[in-house]
Amino acid sequence: MDGTLAVRARGITKCFGDVVALDGIDLDVAPGRIHGLVGPNGAGKTTLLGLLLGLAVADSGSLDILGRPVGRALAAPDAVAGFVDGPGLYPSLTAKQNLAALAALRGRDSATAGVEDVLGQVGLTDVADELVRGFSLGMRQRLGLAAALLTKPRLLVLDEPSNGLDPAGKQHVHGVLTHLADGGTSVVLSSHRMDDVDALCSEVTIIATGRVVFSGSPSELAAEDRGLDYRLRTSDPEAARRLATDTAGIAVVDDAGARQEVLVVRAMLPALDELVVRLVQAGVAVRELAPVVSPLEAAFLALTEQQESSR
Ligand SMILES: Nc1ncnc2c1ncn2[C@@H]1O[C@H](COP(=O)(O)OP(=O)(O)OP(=O)(O)O)[C@@H](O)[C@H]1O
């Protein structure tokens, strides 16, 4: 595996009439990495994934996929597979027949194309002969992934692959993607869920209103200390409220009254440390202290809200 980027995008713009879907996007996807695209509804994730799959062409900017510049023609770049807006499947065929049809389009039969193998990889062997019409959303997602795997892609592009998957299904699909990445395949996927991205992706790009507002590892994103809301449960809620109010850098967020057992405070880490020391010195035991939303989720919300409000 050489070090050529799987995706190198610079200054990508894409408009639909007056709507600016992508507004100068830069994106680097390293080989053998799972790269998550996250952003609120309408941020531009699907549009960007569509460009990677050759379903549309950018208005401006440059896009190299697996080291080759993408041209102006609508065509899937070589060795790229995946789907946006759900996998395209034939409901009146079985899972196996769907994959066999795709293999036949490329002049292969089921056996040589590895239909059974990819069905096994995504955990659909038991339902291989059932009609797709009766499949749940999660099963369709798995079959879409199997269809993409059939082509042995070097870049896999998946729009919301965890959509509709139950926890066991999600874990299975995460395992498949991780195994592929370990073998050198690059994966770009979109998600609304920061916990999925954290569990799966080594890199994350956050998009809001068509612009990149963060690109880096999930741990870099979580590490930015930007003031979070914390739930604080103590042995003496009244004293805790008093001390929190008196500590510089601490804001009591919910002011439901002195009798409220759990206090929500907004603080950066140094002020929170100071509050904990003061509580302990005052003989107040800290029974629970945890962010209301995860640091990753909070960073996502802060970055995307900032971008929305500056529109
Ligand atoms: N074919 C199209 N015609 C007109 N507008 C479009 C088209 N495709 C996307 N858009 C607009 O471009 C913007 C970005 O849409 P896109 O679907 O890429 O966002 P997204 O981040 O994938 O959103 P979601 O999370 O809701 O799927 C939106 O304002 C959307 O309405």
Category by helix and strand content: alpha/beta
Please give the CATH class of the largest domain. Alpha Beta
Q: Order of strands across the biggest sheet?
A: 6-7-8-3-9-10
What percent of residues adopt helix (DSSP H or I)?
A: 25-40%
What is the radius of gyration? 24 Å
CATH architecture of the largest domain: 3-Layer(aba) Sandwich
How many beta-strand runs?
A: 14
Mean pLDDT: 88
What is CATH's topology name of the largest domain? Rossmann fold
Q: What molecules are bound to this protein? A: adenosine-5'-triphosphate
Per the principal axes of the C-alpha atoms, what is the gross shape? elongated
Walkthrough of the structure:
The longest helix is centred in the middle third of the chain and has 16 residues, at 167-182. Helix 4 packs across helix 5 (137-149). The chain folds into two domains: 7-218, 3-Layer(aba) Sandwich (Rossmann fold), CATH 3.40.50.300; 224-309, Alpha-Beta Plaits. A hairpin with a 2-residue loop joins strand 9 and strand 10 (211-216). The chain is built from eleven helices and 14 strands. Strands 6-7-8-3-9-10 form a six-stranded mixed β-sheet, sandwiched between helices. By secondary structure, the protein is α/β, with parallel strands linked by helices. It is elongated, with a radius of gyration of 24 Å. It has helices at 45-52, 95-105, 110-113, 115-121, 137-149, 167-182, 194-200, 218-223, 237-246, 269-281, 295-309; strands at 7-16, 19-29, 34-38, 60-65, 68-69, 80-83, 155-158, 186-191, 203-208, 211-216, 228-234, 251-252, 262-267, 286-291.
